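Batch job 17 of 40 flagged for manual review because the log was empty.
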Amino acid sequence: MAYQPHPSFQSLYDAYTGQDSTGQHLTRHMVRLTEDKPILIVTGSDFVIFPGSRRSPIIESFRRSTRGFTELTAISHFGPALAWIFRLRDLGYASWREDAARMLTRTEEVRGINSESYWTDVVAVDAFRGYERKITDMIDYSCDVTASFLNWCLADESRMTFENLRERYLDPSNSADVPVPIDDMMVATFSLTFLDIGHRMLNWLRAQDFDWSTLMVLLSGKSGRPTAGLTWPTNNNCHILSSASNGQLPAENVQIAPHGPSMQLADMGNPARLQELEQQFRELFLHIRANIDLSRLMFDGYPAFLKSIEEPPVIEPGTKTLRAMPKLRSPDDRLTAITRLRFVMEDPCQLLSNSVAHFVIDQLCEHGNDPKRVVIPGFSNLTYPSRR
């Protein structure tokens, strides 16, 4: 006979944890007490303010739907894309040459479209103003060296080694064919993307006139990879929020719920669905908050939990491994910048944008959120050959 707890035990268990339980009663009552207060929701691509009292949400996108994100990310993908083609061949994938041919075709198509006027008139991002010519040069150069290197490898498959990938493409030294390593270009494209994101989001958040000391913030749903961005140090949205608040946002007011509800594009025009989501977000945040508050009341006098936001390590001459993301000390700290690229790919907990996000946010805050005063790693102090 299969085990089943006695109904009386089950009933007692459900009295605290069931659908109509004491725990649910407290959560829902806290929702009613704060229903006129704002709650800020951060999804994988949007910041959404539910102002309270059933007022319509205010939405600002920061990722895929933003101008220039896809263009810069497509170029940033050159490095890993070629590495994947190499790996497919090593593992005996029969159609790896088709992937290589597709990459070459689309690279040439982008090279034909890329122009200064495209970046000035089509992308037209405030944070890139004045950089359009150099961005055009960087993209043309990256397309050129990528196509040349891949064609060189396809002409003789024995050249398709990861040693060649590193020494002739990703990280060459004193190379006439690849004067700017592709590793540096990847740092630059990440930095430029986050220069725009950081600049816009800092402006937008500071314009909302929040009471940061009491604001409820919930990072809900997947953010990047399913394993990434689950803690304050690994989710750069927390750093943006803290910076926007000038350090006034308490860490305990920011909760990360990777399995929480997410918002889709179709939800934005559906008032009934938005009200349903707002209720879910508020219940989730306040259920977490209820447990925090109760713990402090129940166990007062015992050591308290403190959310860990540790100072990042600095790479030393003998550093071989790292347990946390190293600190980028300056835009010319190339060793750390490229190590951070490795770190975000190798540590599944990291958002890929963490490679540069914290440095760019800090630079924006130090310079009055003026993108022109930020020295961009992999870009500002390097010269990309002019577009041919």
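Reviewer: the log was empty due to a logging misconfiguration, but the result itself is present. The mean pLDDT is 94. Unflagging and moving on to job 18.
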